[in-house]
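FAQ
Q: What does a multi-component entry look like?
A: The components come first, one per line:
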Amino acid sequence: MSTGTTKLDVVVSDVVPVNDLVTRFHFRRRDGELLPTFSGGAHVVVEMRDGGRTRLNPYSLMGSPLDTSEYTISVRRDDVGRGGSLFMHRNVRPGLEMVISYPVNLFSLDLRAKKHLMLAGGIGITPFMAQTAQLAAEGGNFELHYTCRTASLGTYADVLRERYDRRIRLYHDDREERIELDRLLSTQPLGTHLYVCGPAGMINWVRDRAAALGWPPETVHFEHFAAPQPGLPFDVTLAVSGKTIRVDEQQSLLEAIEAAGVDPPYLCRGGVCGQCETNVISHDGKFIHNDHWLSEEDHRSGCKIMPCVSRFEGKSLVLER
Amino acid sequence: MAAKSIISRPVYGTLSPQPGKHHLFVADAEGALAISDMAAGAPAGFFSDAHVIFIPGHDGKHVATLEALKPAQFYQGHTFASALPRLKQTLANAHMGLRVYLSGTEGLIGQAMQAALEAGIDHTSIQTEHRGSLARRMQCVHCKGITENVTTQPATCAHCGLLLLVRDHYSRRIAAFQGVCINAEDRSEIPPIEEAFP
Ligand code: FES
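Then the predicted structure of the entire assembly, as tokens:
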């Protein structure tokens, strides 16, 4: 069994279109019991049986942590992605029985903070739906800045404004509204923690500015689910299990290892948690490291790879798995 | 530098300039030298955003050393207690981007850190450097009284008079080491008293 990924048998209880790109899915337990407790920022990995292949995608839980009668996730359709979000949009209907993992939180609130400053971009709003609900219930001090392309793609912006009013600031790209980041970061009271979830460019921008303006790294939290990038097919030998497998263009190395019947550990499937770290025994070719976990030194050494997001191009690759 | 013996025992580092908009230094006695050593490697203009709160030792030394760094603000206190309101006020008005540097005796570092923690700063993001005396701030676990500047092992509680073994067990919350009665069975038994924290 994969570490931290105990399974839950659920049924899809509702499917709600939110806007042109986003659909919301509701899950309940098949046995009618309550779902496990979670904290704001947690995600689950959803298993999709897509014909002969199993897709496993992580999605943030967006419901209130105070209500565990159901879990809700929001999925943004990606027409040029590898197909997981399209599968959710096209094939998942109320009544479908699915398997999801227990919730895992790699983006939790630091409740010692005096104030929580949240920055969301696009579909990066989902973990904040749960976090704001959690904080509001505890009387926590928070402020959320949310950038979206257009008002109609501001997923849940209206819900958030309704619930929290002036604690929510909206920025629309098409109106050329931009977060005044330096001013925002420089006027926060001591003891504020910063949370950012959105596209990689936004996360990097915010982290860089925060570091330059003297925010200690312990106070800056970020979440980025990098979807595995497609690439050239390649062959891998798994030394421990004695198998040689092929990784397809659209498949991640982790998925290929799983398809071969090996059950490696994972938590995030996005290159940030470190769970899937695997030793390289030998290689002849070049790595395409897409993770945020290994150090640059690790990347250069060629001794380690994160199979959930990273790829390889070359003649041979032997992994310790 | 004090050795790491048990987990609660603080470990200190060496001050180094951090990126930030403002810099707050709190130091006593020879802690001033940690600041001037750091200043040697700091970027130009670093102290123009700095506020230094300094409590000189009995000899009154090092004030000129710190003034020479030309910090934006310089405050000199007689005791930590007299400097505390200013420290608290500074922290209360501060914004993210303020970096905190503490140097000198363990008692100074511990108490200033206590104020910084209350203001919401994580202890891992505070720079500390131990300089000068190893004297400890000790809490008597029996009467809860705090005795400052303990240099001997065992030491007498200034409040209840018990003879205490000064442990390495440190409380961040009260910024003090724990002292436990060393001769509870037989008070007439007085072990040799040694200078342990000069
Ligand atoms: S599963 Fe988290 S880094 Fe690969």
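Q: Is there any commentary attached?
A: Sometimes. For this entry: DSSP finds four helices and twelve strands in chain B.
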